[in-house]
Amino acid sequence: MKSAKSSRLREIASEVGSKGYLARAQERAARRKSPWNLLDLPVGLASMGLVWWASVHAIWAARNLFIPHHAIPFSFVFHSQHTGLAPIVFFVAPLIAVIPVGLLVSNCIVWCIPSYRRASDREAKGVWHASFSDAQRDLSLMALCISCPALIASFVAALVISV
Q1: In the chain, what are the domain boundaries?
Q2: How does DSSP assign 61-122, residue by residue?
Q3: Contact assessment for residue 125 and residue 57, using Cβ atoms and an 8 Å cutoff
Q4: Is 129 left (phi over 0), alpha (psi -120 to 50) or beta?
Q5: Burial of residue 90 (number of CB atoms within 10 Å: 0-12, 13-18, 19+)
């Protein structure tokens, strides 16, 4: 299992790092001609927004559980005069973390639409890492590599914040 993830990560890194990546990415994007693809952007952005909101609230709840003698309602964070690096990291790190997680959720949502699924399957035939399962696997790997450190940084920043 671990070797499969590391080989997948090496495979993706070699694709992104090799010469001509942008041309190949544009070629892959050009095959997507179905009007159903217009759903990707609004559903993806909405999913990322909801996941960000949920993760910030969950991190703050975990912070209050971790230090209950300094528990502060989440709404007070917005009204605080506390400035510095900690509030910025607390709110911005989850923005980075939610990209792969929000896209995972978005893919699941649009995949539930049969017409979208059929159009996506047609466009993905014979294209490297374009199938639903490959995309979900790649996004899951990105979530592990990007989201976990970013959420840990946000939690540490939340511990430092005192309103």
Answers
A1: 1-30, 33-160
A2: HHHHHHSGGG---HHHHHH----SHHHHHHHHHHHHHHHHHHHHHHHHHHHTSHHHHHHHHH
A3: no
A4: left
A5: buried
| pLDDT tens readout for residues 55-72 | 999 999 999 999 999 888
Q: How far apart are CA 50 and CA 68, in angstroms?
A: 26
Tokens of 105: 């959720």
Residue 66 backbone zone (phi > 0: left; psi -120 to 50: alpha; other: beta): alpha
How many Å apart are CA 40 and CA 31, to the nearest integer?
15
Residues 21-37 have pLDDT tens digits of: 677 767 766 666 778 87
Per-residue DSSP letter, 38: G
**Whole-prediction pTM value?**
0.78
pLDDT single digits (tens) 110-139: 999 999 888 888 887 877 767 888 888 888
**CA gap 54, 127 in Å, rounded:** 34
Reference 111, options 37, 18, 21, 57; nearest CA is 37
